[in-house]
Write a structure and sequence with these properties.
One of its GO terms (biological process) is DNA restriction-modification system. InterPro entries: nSTAND3, P-loop_NTPase, Restrct_endonuc_IV_Mrr, tRNA_endonuc-like_dom_sf. One of its GO terms (molecular function) is DNA binding. By secondary structure, the chain is of the alpha/beta class. It folds into four domains: 147 residues, Trna Endonuclease, Chain: A, domain 1, CATH 3.40.1350.10; 176 residues, 3-Layer(aba) Sandwich (Rossmann fold); 73 residues, no CATH class; 224 residues, no CATH class. The chain is 54% helix and 8% strand. The strands form four sheets. Strands 1-2-3-4-5 form a five-stranded mixed β-sheet, with helices on both faces. The chain has a five-stranded parallel β-sheet with strand order 7-8-9-6-10, sandwiched between helices. Helix 13 links the parallel strand 7 and strand 8. Helix 23 packs across helix 24, helix 34 runs parallel beside helix 36 and helix 36 packs antiparallel against helix 37.
Length: 761
């Protein structure tokens, strides 16, 4: 039977920490640890009057039995000097009885006994005996083959958009840091965690490790791309961890989506708070979260704030930055000559202390494929240049390594719409239409030269380097690609050309929304003009609610300053691009009477839409209206300046009473969660009560509240029993987090740490 662990995912520094923990657990003694690097023969020490107990760990990448013999032989002089009473030698290499005898002979000291020489088999045996040590060393157990298989069968592979090798790579270079322990504590206490921070700081990696830890404990992992996904996947009787990566947008905030979803996100968080068998992990860029809080009272709430873990560079101490670089170099496949060139001189210190230090840059600069063309002698210089100018990560590859057609494809991908209720990425068929229009629009080819295989050939050119393809969808390989393209597409010619080529209304909204807010008025007018021509010319497909389309068109006309477009937009063909959602018309009517009041026919159209709302609640209806639709209308009327007639409010009261009377708790579906459904009913009723003076809902509300109280009482009892049977996992603080002596990390400590990577001449 193969050993559970081969320890290849641990660096020498991490392996030493594991060995100290394991010997301490087996002997019941406390061992002192020292700074990494040249250790004078001591990785751990237990002091006592009759002679110290010394521990030495040996673990090197791709080392052989011959390498181990040389390293052990060199320790003999240290033993003579230290004069320990007892000596432990631990190695990740497999050892036979004969090899142990050889090592005892090489050390040739009375403190050395074969029983205290542990190889791979002994380490695995003692880990099985001391499970607490195994669980403390998160990287170790998360990287075992059995755990990785379970993660891939769960939703962790979807969440990371990764393969087995990619998950293994992430876990290899991961450095346990205080943010993990703090995040785990917040998640356990509040059942929700918002990880916020700047791009590339490690938000997604932290979420991945937390989710993987729960997943290995038997919790169901649910990766979601919209809050609707969360409500649909919610199963009261299952222990579930929901992960919502970039929940407010990848690059910038989408105010329309925020207005639609913020209340539902907070309500979902409230459900998590109450349920001991649920966890909710969300990630977002800090500047997007701050923008969202400025617009949303729901997200700017104390209950939301206490669930936040701010991950920024201040979280990374000098030692942690050094460990991250160390792990990436140790596990990198980069040519050893390049690594040795980096270790010479003062480059490592400059990297660790650089003002632009970012884990994502470290990952990029230690990727063998991306650095393959860099000569070893130039590697330190290129590394520092990239830190000084992070745009260089993608700039050279974008400008020199791919064709103009491929550049156009990436432009299209950046501006293509992200569907609201779907998997991440852009559908291939959507992207193909946009791309084929764009290469003609940019003059790369003529329409007659367009070939059926051109899209596939160009997509193949950027596959794996800039994008990944999965299940008929294409996504960027890394969020930093989008960061780069957001800057690269600030050119007026690029934007206006793409605007003339957009294939759908949703794509037009995406392009206009992603324009740099600092763009000049002239540039905005040029792009707006191109988009309006696309609309009027009938070149775009798809449909949107009228209020969303009107907001876009209104902004475009304002940007051009040409109200003459309004006459052209009255053409019959425009009607195919929208449907009317009466519940959201009040804000549009306000805009027509205020922001857009100078547009021709604006006030007349506002009167027409007011009549549409009145007809919506006509007294001669032959059906019961949906409570959710009435709640949306009530909420929007309450925040609008719009005034309706007394007859309208009378019709509204009647429709609301009918809708509430039609609610029947006994008809809630077997696949639905009763508390969630009834909770939504109560929220809808509360919104309706903000508009109406009727008291007809009192008894229904009381009946619903009593049922929820009963459900919660039963659920609390069930959770108490479940918690006894299946306690939630607790993140430990492994020994590798113990700071060097004095709690600081000096230049000497830095040199000592990286000395183990240096090759002797």
């Amino acid at each position: 039977m193969p050993d559970r662990y081969d320890f290849a995912n641990l660096s020498p520094v991490e392996f030493e920490g594991l060995c100290v923990d394991l010997v301490a657990a087996e002997t019941g003694l406390r061992f002192e640890r020292f700074s990494e690097g040249a250790d004078g023969g001591v990785d751990g020490r237990h002091g006592q009057a009759n002679g110290d107990i010394i521990l030495q760990a040996k673990h090197y990448k791709n080392s052989t039995w011959s390498d181990l013999q040389k390293a052990v032989k060199a320790e003999k002089k240290n033993l003579v000097k230290l004069k320990p009473s007892e000596y432990y030698l631990l190695t990740s290499q497999p050892l036979t009885s004969a090899r142990k005898k050889t090592l005892v002979s090489l050390l040739d000291h009375p403190s050395v006994d074969a029983s205290n020489i542990w190889g791979r088999a002994e380490l695995n045996a003692y880990l099985a005996k001391h499970s607490a040590v195994e669980r403390q060393n998160i990287k170790l157990w998360l990287s075992s083959a059995a755990v990785l298989d379970r993660l891939l069968k769960n939703d962790i592979a979807v969440f990371t958009e990764a393969t087995y090798d990619e998950i293994e790579r992430i876990l290899k270079v991961f450095v346990v840091n205080p943010s993990l322990k703090k995040s785990a504590e917040i998640l356990k206490a509040t059942h929700c965690l918002i990880v916020s921070g700047p791009p590339g700081v490690g938000k997604t990696t932290l979420a991945q490790v937390l989710a993987a830890e729960y997943s290995d404990e038997g919790w169901e992992l649910v990766s979601i791309t919209s809050i609707e996904d969360g409500f649909r996947a919610f199963q009261r009787d299952n222990r579930q961890v929901f992960v919502f990566d970039d929940f407010l947008g990848k690059i910038r905030l989408d105010p329309a989506s925020l207005a639609r979803d913020d209340g539902r996100i907070v309500r979902f968080m409230s459900m998590m708070h109450k349920d001991k068998g649920k966890r909710f992990i969300l990630t977002t860029r800090s500047y997007i979260l701050q923008a969202a809080r400025a617009l949303s009272e729901a997200l700017d709430d104390t209950k939301v704030e206490v669930s936040e873990m701010v991950l920024n560079l201040a979280t990374y101490t000098r030692e942690l930055k050094a460990r991250i670089l160390y792990n990436h170099l140790y596990h990198s496949e980069i040519d050893q000559d390049s690594i040795q060139a980096l270790l010479a001189g003062d480059t490592v210190r400059q990297i660790v202390d650089h003002r632009n230090y970012m884990p994502r840059i470290i990952q990029w600069m230690t990727d063998e494929i991306r650095q393959r063309d860099v000569p070893p002698s130039e590697y330190p210089k290129v590394f520092l240049q990239t830190l000084a100018n992070p745009d260089k990560i993608w700039d050279k590859a974008f400008r020199q390594h791919i064709s103009p057609n491929a550049q156009i494809l990436l432009y299209c991908m950046y501006f293509a719409e992200q569907e609201r209720f779907s998997e991440p990425g852009v559908r291939l068929e959507t992207l193909q239409v946009f791309f084929e229009r764009a290469i003609v629009g940019f003059g790369a080819i003529t329409k007659a030269e367009l070939r059926a295989t051109m899209f596939e050939d160009t997509l193949r050119e950027v596959k794996s380097s800039f994008v990944v393809i999965d299940g008929g969808r294409v996504n960027f390989i890394n969020p930093s690609v989008q960061d780069y393209l957001s800057r690269e597409t600030r050119d007026a010619t690029v934007l206006s050309t793409l605007a003339r080529c957009v294939p759908s209304v949703a794509c037009a909204i995406s392009l206009w929304g992603k324009m740099d807010t600092r763009a000049s008025g002239k540039m905005r007018a040029q792009v707006a003009d191109a988009l309006l021509i696309s609309f009027i010319g009938g070149h775009v497909e798809g449909k949107l609610p009228l209020h969303e389309l009107a907001d876009l068109v209104g902004d475009l006309v304002l940007a051009t300053g040409d109200t003459g477009y309004c006459e052209l937009l009255r053409r019959p063909g425009i009607k195919r691009l929208f449907w009317t959602d009466e519940g959201n018309l009040p804000a549009l009517i306000d805009a027509l009477e205020d922001t857009y009041s100078k547009f021709p026919y604006a006030r007349a159209y506002a009167r027409y839409l007011r009549l549409e709302i009145f007809r919506y609640l006509s007294a001669d209806r032959e059906y019961v209206m949906e409570l959710e639709d009435l709640a949306a209308l009530a909420s929007n009327l309450g925040s609008a300046k719009l005034e309706m007639s007394e007859r309208f409010y009378s019709n509204f009261d009647e429709a609301a009473e009918e809708a509430v009377d039609a609610l029947d708790m006994n008809r809630i579906g077997g696949n639905e969660d009763p508390e969630q459904v009834i909770g939504e009913w109560l929220e809808y009723i509360e919104k309706i009560e903000g508009l109406t003076s009727t008291t007809a809902f009192y008894w229904k509300k009381r009946e619903f509240e009593e049922r929820i109280a009963a459900i919660q009482q039963i659920e609390e009892y069930r959770q108490q029993r479940e918690e006894i049977r299946n306690p939630a996992p607790r993140s430990q603080s492994p020994s590798e987090l113990r700071p060097a002596s004095g709690g600081s990390f000096s230049n000497a400590d830095l040199l000592s740490m990286f000395s183990s990577l240096k090759k002797s001449n």
